[in-house]
Design brief:
The protein is built from seven helices and eight strands, in the order ααααβαββββββααβ. By secondary structure, the protein is α+β, with helices and mostly antiparallel strands. It has a five-stranded antiparallel sheet. It has a three-stranded antiparallel sheet with strand order 4-5-6, covered by helices on one side. One of its GO terms (cellular component) is plasma membrane.
């Protein structure tokens, strides 16, 4: 058994030596690992290719190429820095110009706003002054309108109503004794003296310009013919107006004439009577007084 084991080991050793010799006889590509072979072959071939091109003068020497590359890089960097600096300066100029323009516009707008505010204050003051003037003029207009109405009522150019009296005169049934203008004048004058505020004859309002005149047998009032019966209406205190009328000289004379000549004569008090406004007449010669001229004591002035 020992002999057989020894023979076996001797045979194994000789076989291993043969295998090692056979492996050493093979080229490196066969025995080298695949990844190592690929790496070495690729790097060797690249170096070989570069060496061949350099030998033929197709590649620059390894010493001059880094300096040129550095010079190109530095030049490019300088161009970039210069361009950036120029652009930054231009942008700064543009920014400064834009900022100055914006500040100028803001100042202009502020000045405009200030002017507008001053104008608003001025207009507000003018508006307050105008409002005060309007209020004053309105008050003056109201007072003037009130005074005008009072004057119109007093002068007969405004329709009025109120309590009063009525006196009716009528021609006699027979005879030639007719009522004339003088009889109606006595009736109107007596009523004015008794305190009448407005008087009308057959609807014709009496004013300072009124006239009662005969034209033949026809009586005209305000140049308008009227026919009997003659109705004289007055507005005033109905409780005392007739009594004062009868006590006056014109009133008592009219009553006496009516009784003597047979005129129809009646009188009555009225709780409400309306008198029309007189027709307006154009003044051709009369002119209004100025403020500096004196007025009569009984003339109505501003209140």
């Amino acid at each position: 058994m020992p002999d057989e084991r020894g023979a076996s080991e001797t045979a194994g050793s000789s076989g291993s030596a043969e295998a090692t010799e056979a492996r050493d006889a093979l080229p490196p590509r066969v025995t080298m690992p695949l990844l190592t072979l690929i790496t070495q072959q690729s790097m060797d071939e690249d170096y070989l290719h570069v060496a061949e091109r350099r030998g033929r003068g197709q590649l620059p020497s390894s010493r001059s190429r880094p300096h040129r590359t550095a010079a190109v890089v530095v030049a490019a960097f300088g161009v970039l820095v210069t361009t950036a600096a120029v652009q930054t300066a231009q942008d700064a100029d543009v920014d400064r110009a834009g900022r100055a323009t914006l500040v100028e516009r803001i100042n202009d707008r502020r000045a405009t706003v200030s002017d507008l505010q001053d104008r608003i204050v001025e207009l507000r003051e003018q508006n307050e002054l105008a409002t005060a003037n309007v209020a004053r003029l309105t008050e003056t207009a109201v007072e003037a309108q009130s005074r005008l109405r009072r004057l119109q009522a007093n002068t007969g150019y405004l329709a009025v109503q109120g309590e009063g009296v009525r006196i009716t005169l009528e021609n006699p049934a027979v005879g030639d004794n007719l009522i004339r203008d003088i009889d109606l004048q006595k009736a109107a004058n007596a009523l004015w003296l008794a305190g009448a505020e407005a008087v009308a004859v057959n609807g014709q309002r009496l004013t300072a310009l009124s006239a009662i005149r005969n034209s033949g047998v026809v009586v005209n009032v305000n140049s308008m013919p009227i026919a009997p019966p003659y109705v004289v209406t007055a507005i005033g205190d109905s409780r005392s107006l007739l009594a004062r009328f009868q006590e006056s000289a014109s009133g008592s004379a009219l009553i006496n004439v009516a009784q003597a000549l047979g005129f129809g004569y009646t009188q009555e008090t009225l709780t409400s009577v309306r008198l029309p406004a007189a027709r307006r007449r154009t003044l051709l010669s009369a002119e209004p007084l100025t403020a500096d001229e004196p007025r009569a004591e009984n003339e109505e002035g501003p209140r």
